[in-house]
Amino acid sequence: MKQYVTLTIDGAHVRAVKGTSVLDAAIEFGICIPHLCHVPNLSDIGACRLCIVEHIKDGKSKVTTSCTLHVQDGMVIRSNSEKIKKLRRNIAELLVAQAPNSRAIQDIAVRCGVKEVRYPFRNSDCVLCGQCVRVCTEMWGARALGFVGRGKDRHVDFPLGVREEFCKHCGSCNLLCPMTITPCKGPMKRGEEYLCGKCESQLMITENRPDSCVWCELGKNFQCARYSQS
Amino acid sequence: MPKLKTAPDLELFRAELHQERARFPVTITICGGTGCQASQSKYVFQALKQELGAHGLDKRVWVRRSGCHGFCEQGPLMVIEPSNIFYCHITPDDVPDIVQQTMRNNVIIEKLLYTDPISGKKIQTEAEIPFYRSQDRLLLSQNRLVDPCSIDDFIAVGGYSAISKVLATMKPEKIIETIKESGLRGRGGGGFPTGQKWAECRAALGDEKYVICNADEGDPGAYMDRSILEGNPHLVLEGMLIGAFAIGAEYGYIYVRREYPLAVEHARTALKQAREYGLLGEHILGSPFSFDVEIARGGGAFVCGESTALMASLEGKVGEPRPKDVHTVEEGLWNKPTTLNNVETWANVPFIINNGSAWFAAKGTRNSKGTKIIALTGHIRNTGLVEVALGTSLNTVIYDIGGGPANGKAIKAVQTGGPSGGCLPVSKFDLPIDFDALYEAGSMVGSGGMVVMDESTCMVDVAKYFLQFLQDESCGKCVPCRLGIDRMLEIITDITEGRGKREHIALLQDLADTVQQTSLCGLGKTAPNPVLSTLRYFPEEYEAHVIQKRCPAKVCKPLITFAIDVEKCSGCGRCFAACPHGAISGEKKQAHVINPQSCNKCGICAEECKFQAITIN
Predict the structure, then answer these.
(1) Rg of the Cα trace of chain A?
(2) CB contact (8 A) between residue B520 and residue A47
(3) Which of the residues A8, A78, B405, B536 has an alpha carbon 20 to 30 A from that of B386?
């Protein structure tokens, strides 16, 4: 039998199944917490840090990722405070400066309120969200992909750099990869990257009507959990 | 050696040891720590054994090779008891003299005594040396009395009496209560109350629990944990035994880095001996309590000092941290409740049990009790391993124990707590070494590294150094740590190379705040500390770099130029000969000039010049 707990997210009383994450509970309820590395039904690793929320406990606020935080009865969560918005914007800025050539990342940047990018663009091919690695390992048990290296050298690769037989060419990694969709105007050249901001017009709709999901096109590219669940 | 089956067995054995040792009126201790080993203490030891044998003194003099004494730069060290004569910088050639004069004729050899650099006087005993005088040695006190490879030595100084007491008279709850009352806080960096951690782990559901000793010490220049594990491994083991009994664990691990071969070897020997004596294994000292320990060697990743990364590494996975929304005391190693403590924390436990929590809590400040070992390095006279009561001021450590600046230049700052700590200026030197006081000042006690810097240090360059270290050591899993540190380093590199802009300082502050608040693990959360603390205490240095494009300490190469003062140059040609880049030209007896195009700013000319004619702008 399912056990339920009630928690407060941004002032709304949310009833959620015990054992689920705060992020899942929020999305289920229609509170969109931006996220990148979270994929429904795969384990959460808390790598992108976009889904950070404030967990208010004993009067103290603790910043943590909502995907790794389990719901508890009476929990108080703030997903959209000024502090969180600022931190999330800074993280999104780091991401978009690293990989401007992805519509998903550009969308996230706009959603998180990035108005300017204060770092030189880098045009990297991967933001190490690890969706491909986890889907390959956890969903298919193939383990054909993994993280290699540490820190700046960390990248996704086949074991020993060779595509082995145990990769079944299922394409799940490609399907999930946020880097596969280029911005509306096509791929950006190296040295000519910019903050696209094209999706801002669509964003306005949701900003004016908070708490109401309009099933925006944005969500699709953003891999909003609602789309993947439907 | 038959197993010690009961507590009286242990006491009987201890009494026998005392009797046996009493037959040796003189004890010579030679430091065999890594530092002294590097200065050939092994050969001194061998020579001494041989020489004593030749003089027929080997039945009277007990020779011991001990762990680190702390005063590493004076090594190899020798202490002759009971007169407590302290010799330093000994070579094997000195050994015949020592035996002939000191041992036979009771004459002290002046040239082997320590010279106080301030008064120039020769000092005879360890206790009188300023470096030792201001210390409060608890954990390190036994290092001198114990051969790390001899369990007998440890038992002779009262070892394993705490676990014997615990097993005979204390309930686990009582132990936890004692540790709580003592106010012991984690010595690895976080400063989490140890008693609370144990209580939570004991209360956690699960029949299988683990204890782990974290000896993955990776801070540059710090070696507190190494010295304890290497110098007195049984003390750590006894602490782990008590902890395991308190939380209900039957198995433990010592996670030690591969770069500490001596610590690994000594810990291995200690485990073997403890098993032989029945102090590890089934039914320890006749009680129902069983416990064993395994040594795991880490590959040397800094991030594996973080508890969850360490546990992942122990499980055979990639050493990466995981979110700690569920604490390791509930789901740690193999998802079982796990108590992980630092070497120094474990080493404190037997003392607390033996002497009581009130005795321990008498030392220190309101929220930081006991003593702390500090690895003191940098631009000071006396470097080495220092143990002081918490609450001792930075001034005492740096000036009284450290002996002040080494080369006449004024001290400017101290970096406490390793790469994750912060830089504190001289104006903060009256702060006590206290977990909360240093945290509020933007630094931390951390694991206990302390790097003293004088005015020849550029604080922006220091921040850059630590960022480089952390960028290399970040696991790369989460965005703020991987990209944030990378970008901070990018900005700081721009600043030190003269490309800094005014807005960079605000951006650096903003980014550092974000990394601090949003990173996944302790490494990322504390990584911006060097940047934040230097921004807070030395903003003028950043401004000089950014606005005037000038490095006040004359360290950042792109911002300095070398020139020759025509007035002072005698035309001796030393700089001309020394310059490896052929950048200096000039006739003999006439002023030389530096060609800025070929000058590499290595500074060799300035070192060579006898007339201080090289100016750096």
Answers:
(1) 18
(2) yes
(3) B536
